[in-house]
Write a structure and sequence with these properties.
Blueprint: H1 5-9, E1 13-17, H2 22-34, E2 39-44, H3 52-59, H4 67-73, H5 76-86, E3 87-91, H6 103-110, E4 114-117, H7 128-149, E5 154-158, E6 168-171, H8 187-204, H9 208-222, H10 227-257, H11 262-277, E7 283-288, E8 290-292, H12 309-317, E9 334-336, H13 337-350, E10 360-364, H14 374-387, H15 408-431, H16 439-466, E11 469-472, H17 475-482, H18 489-492, H19 501-517, H20 531-539, E12 546-549, H21 560-568, H22 574-597, H23 599-607, H24 615-630, H25 636-647, E13 651-659, H26 660-663, E14 672-676, E15 678-680, E16 686-690, H27 698-711, E17 718-722, H28 728-733, E18 736-740, H29 744-753, E19 756-758, H30 790-795, E20 800-801, E21 818-819, H31 883-886, E22 894-895, H32 902-907, E23 917-918, H33 950-962
Parallel strand pairs: 1-2, 1-4, 2-3, 4-5, 5-7, 6-11, 7-10, 8-9, 12-13, 12-17, 13-14, 17-18, 18-19
Antiparallel strand pairs: 15-16, 20-21, 22-23
Helix pairs in contact: 2-13, 7-8, 7-11, 8-10, 9-10, 14-19, 15-16, 16-29, 22-23
Length: 981
């Protein structure tokens, strides 16, 4: 007798589980569009952030599956009215006893006439306990809940054809336990064993050896990211370990019973459990094969998410997978989703097949009625991608490889060896100090390893299905289709013989797969904006409120060790500088290990080297440190990015582990500076101990939270720039993180999370010294110095003794002294505290300053720092201040004027030289200005560039990058040969 599905289901309430999945969404759409007289009750699991109604609206009804229905109804408003009138959403979970229903939900379930259970964990690598709770116990819980409510609606349970197991030959539409190949298994013991395995693995994962292993793996991935992030990653590692062991346990148990994986095993045991626990509830079972994109309903090619075949197809099209196990003449049992939905609706409209409610089985497959050979499918896919290739990142077509059909063991072995080799290479590259574009090498190796892992997972998961040789009977399915009137087959047809495989694969399925995969299908460069450009626009949007910057390797290519080396060698002789540099280089591996282990411990350990250093002298030297070292290593694009944020009205913050006196010259660029500080003793010397917690790891995130609370800033509208995983806590609390010249770990995380990655370069033409040691300028003073091991160096120097007065003249206070024997070499001062300059004094009467022709000029050691007039000042010896560079409206070039004679220098001593020339580039509107501070006026300084003019090259290249026109720099006059008289 013909069955008219809309008439049979008219006026009935249908309870549907699994409506947020691929099959469930298509089922809801078909019922709303083709069965206008029914009402639908959806069971949806509540989300963490959304209610069940919000989840249904977002995950079900906004899907493009409903576009056809929206057009037929006349718009979104009419569609929303239809949903509100015919659909009701209740909260529940099939993995919980009683389905997790409240009283309203139980009443809604009790009022239904048909229950369609399509909820399942369809992943082939699901943990054993999850597959048991959902696939095995889910149908049983529904039947028991209906029995508790005292109702007997028709229950249609969706299973899978692969419950037949790894068999060859015919697999008819019968119950699983009626098969001659059924292995009698007590499903209740399987449930208990799965739960016990979960408990045992949870306890084992908390043992000290495994916890230490998880901590080491977390530290290897994140580095010195801070305690909270490392703890979170450690717990994630532990949970992943438990899940992997449960997946292995499920796969092993399924293989021992003759099923390909835990999914098929739990579905088979679920059918058995439902038959025993159904009570008086009539049951029908629908077993689909591999469900793929739609043949015609609601539109040809509709698909949601990636099913089983899509990842393999895309990997093949990208040239990543050239071998996959399978039998060329074997059958790939694929069925479009709309045929499965039609079969479910037909079974629900027909009712239970057996009068006593015993489960009847309907298989929805194509292998017996319209077979598709594996070799034919490969030829269709290969031919289509040869005509419509994908394109790589350079816009070049990807040639698909020739498909081979090796055994599963061979492919698995090759992929496992490749994965091991790539993992070792990745480990070696991560141990190297690679940054920026160099870190892309490690990222590329990691991508290759992930591709190998993905391919290995495909082979492990799907290899058994491609080698399956079972032929699933569809007699009941064909009978259902034959019972439909011809007018009903358009909406509810389920006959697999209507599928034209050539048309389906080439014209319907593959174009849909490529579209949903979002891969490149056109040659050349993309015409629109790149992803980096879109992210950069978001970062520099006026809507942002705060921009936080790290200093080291983000704004400048330097670190605290480099700054320390420069300051420590500022007033040392060349041999001592070499010794200091050599010792720091020898300590570099241990310092690097300490830095990677814990950034805060590294700073505390390293800053103890500043013990007993005079604070006033380091503050004085820090200005020249900025101009001589840090400015030459600065990234002009990074400095400009700071100015762009200031021009947009964003609050700029510098968060760094550098010391306060080192970053003091940068204060005009930032509204707030969070840095490290050291305490001083009563004599004004540093103690080597920090006054506050170092701003590293999670303390940087805490600093951002404090600033946000103080100024009313929403961190979701904040930007953070950093280069290392030690800054990961700061990057994760803002809404727009930016990885600048990232190390290998951070580059990998930024790629996975879709963050903006910036590669800032130093100004072209700069060649900073190989070693960060300071050039000798100015006198060496008597202070122990910041290096504890400098005392032996000073002890080896000869002590100076007072020089004898010339005959007939009394010794004058402050007169020069002679060094001990061996201290006068090459006419240079070798006494303690002496400057490395030539001292020219003549023993003449006080007040007389005239030169005698041929008079002897004894070269003496100086007991104290000589005054400027006693020194022969060379170019670059004068200290260069950064005030004109950072406190002007922009960075400007500075050139010293011609030097005059000794009298002119003495006449202008102590005040600005009127002949000093400060040349400023022309003002441009696109370069933001730094406002001058009233308490720090702009002053002209008597500046002399170094002999190599590195500062001039740095600034000149910086202006050219900013697009400023330059005046021809005025060359400083060559200094006179003789010193001050």
């Amino acid at each position: 007798m013909p069955v008219v599905i809309p008439e049979a289901l008219a006026g009935k309430r249908i309870f549907v589980t699994g409506s947020t999945g691929f099959l469930g969404t298509a089922l809801v759409e078909r019922l709303l569009r083709s069965v206008p007289g029914c009402e639908i009750v959806l069971l949806v699991r509540p989300g963490r952030m959304r209610s069940v109604a919000q989840r249904a609206r977002r995950e079900i009804f906004r899907n493009d599956c409903f576009e056809r229905l929206r057009e037929e109804l006349g718009g979104v408003a009419a569609f929303d009215e239809l949903v509100d009138r015919r659909v009701r959403v209740v909260a529940g979970d099939v993995s919980t006893d009683g389905l997790g229903l409240d009283e309203a939900g139980r009443a809604a379930l009790a009022s239904c006439d048909v229950v369609i259970h399509s909820a399942a964990t369809v992943s082939f690598d699901s943990p054993l306990d999850l597959a048991v709770e959902v696939n095995l116990m889910g149908p049983t819980r529904i039947a028991r809940t209906l029995g508790d409510l005292g109702v007997t609606p028709h229950l249609v349970a969706v299973s899978t054809c692969y419950v037949a197991g790894n068999r060859r030959g015919a697999a008819p539409e019968i119950s699983v336990h009626e098969s001659p190949f059924w292995v009698e298994v007590d499903w209740r013991r399987e449930v208990e064993a799965a739960r016990r395995v979960r408990a045992d693995l949870e306890a084992e994962s908390r043992t000290p050896p495994l916890l230490a292993r998880f901590m080491a793996e977390a530290r290897a991935e994140l580095g010195a990211a801070g305690g909270p992030l490392l703890a979170t990653k450690t717990e994630n590692r532990r949970e992943a370990w438990v899940k992997d062991r449960l997946v292995e346990a499920g796969r092993s148990r399924a293989a021992s019973l003759g099923w390909p994986d835990a999914y098929a095993m739990t579905k088979a045991l679920g059918e058995r459990a439902l038959g025993e626990s159904r009570g008086d509830v009539p049951v029908s079972i629908v077993r689909p094969a591999i469900i793929e994109s739609a043949w015609s309903q609601p539109v040809p090619g509709w698909i949601r998410g990636f099913r089983m075949a899509e990842p393999v197809i895309i990997s093949y099209a990208r040239g990543l997978l050239s071998e996959f196990p399978g039998v060329p003449e074997g059958i790939v049992d694929v069925i479009p989703v709309d045929l499965v939905v039609g079969a479910i609706c037909a079974v629900a409209a027909r009712g239970p097949l057996h009068p006593d409610g015993t489960p009847d089985v309907t298989q929805v497959a194509s292998g017996s009625a319209n077979p598709l050979a594996y070799g034919r499918l490969v030829d269709l896919v290969s031919g289509w991608f040869s005509e419509h290739p994908l394109y790589d990142s350079d816009g070049q077509p990807i040639n698909v490889p020739e498909w081979r059909f090796p055994g599963r063991g061979r492919v698995q072995g090759q992929l496992e060896r490749s994965e091991r080799l790539l993992a070792k290479a990745e480990k070696v590259l991560r141990s190297l100090p690679l940054r920026g574009r160099q870190a892309d090498v490690a990222t590329t190796v990691e991508e290759k390893r992930e591709q190998a892992e993905r391919a290995l997972a495909y082979v492990t998961l799907y290899g058994a299905y491609t080698e399956c040789e079972a032929i699933y009977g569809v007699d009941h399915l064909l009978a259902l289709d034959a019972a439909m009137p011809d007018t009903e087959r358009t909406d509810f047809g389920c006959d697999p013989r209507v599928i034209d495989w050539d048309r389906y694969v080439r014209s319907i399925h593959l174009p849909s797969v490529v579209q949903h995969a979002r891969v490149r299908t056109e040659p050349g460069r993309p015409s629109g904006d790149s992803r980096e450009q879109r992210l950069r626009r978001q970062v520099l949007s006026p809507d942002r409120q705060l921009a936080a910057f790290d200093l080291e390797n983000t704004l400048i290519a330097s670190n605290v060790v480099t700054s320390y080396a420069w300051l420590a060698t500022r007033r040392l002789r060349r041999p001592d500088k070499v010794r200091v540099a050599a010792r720091l280089l020898a300590e570099a591996p241990s310092l690097l290990r300490l830095d990677r282990r814990d950034r805060s411990d590294f700073l505390r350990h390293f800053y103890r080297r500043y013990e007993d250093a005079p604070a006033d002298q380091l503050v004085e030297d820090s200005v020249e440190l900025m101009s001589d070292l840090l400015l030459t290593r600065a990234f002009p694009a990074a400095i400009r990015r700071v100015r762009e944020h200031r021009a947009l009205g964003h609050r700029t913050v510098l968060i760094t582990g550098a010391l306060d006196f080192v970053v003091a010259p940068l204060r005009p660029l930032f509204d707030d500076i969070v840095c490290a500080r050291m305490s001083t003793d009563a004599s004004g010397r540093f103690t080597g101990q920090m006054t506050d917690v170092p701003p590293t790891g999670e303390s940087r995130a805490s600093a951002l939270f404090d600033l946000a609370g103080r100024y009313g800033i929403d961190l979701r509208e904040a930007v953070a720039y950093a280069d290392s995983t030690s800054d990961l806590a700061m990057l994760e609390v803002v809404g727009f993180p930016v990885a600048v010249n990232p190390e290998a770990r951070l580059a990998s995380l930024a790629r996975k999370r879709g963050w903006l990655v910036e590669s800032f370069d130093k100004a072209p033409g700069f060649r900073p010294p190989a070693l960060p040691i300071a050039a000798r300028r100015g006198p060496r003073r008597e202070w122990p110095g910041p290096l504890p091991f400098l005392a032996p160096l000073r002890a080896r120097r000869p002590r100076a003794t007072p020089a004898a007065a010339p005959p007939g003249r009394p010794a004058r206070e402050g007169a020069p002294v002679r060094a001990q024997a061996g201290s006068l070499r090459g006419g240079r001062c070798r006494g303690p505290g002496a400057a490395r300059v030539r001292c020219r004094r003549r023993p003449v009467a006080p007040g007389r300053r005239r030169r005698r022709a041929g008079a002897a000029r004894p070269r003496l050691a100086c007991p104290a720092p000589p005054t400027r007039r006693h020194l022969r000042i060379r170019p670059g010896h004068a200290r260069r201040s950064l005030q004109p560079l950072l406190r002007a409206d922009r960075v400007v070039p500075v050139h010293a004027g011609a030097r005059g004679g000794g009298r002119a220098r003495r006449r202008h001593a102590g005040r600005a030289d009127p002949r000093a020339v400060v040349r400023s580039a022309r003002r441009r509107a696109d370069v933001p200005a730094v406002p001058r501070r009233p308490h720090q006026p702009l002053r002209a300084h008597r500046l002399r560039p170094p002999r190599t003019r590195a500062a001039d090259r740095l600034l000149r290249d910086h202006w050219r990058r900013l697009g400023h026109p330059l005046d021809r720099p005025r060359q400083p006059a060559r200094p006179r040969a003789r010193g001050p008289r």
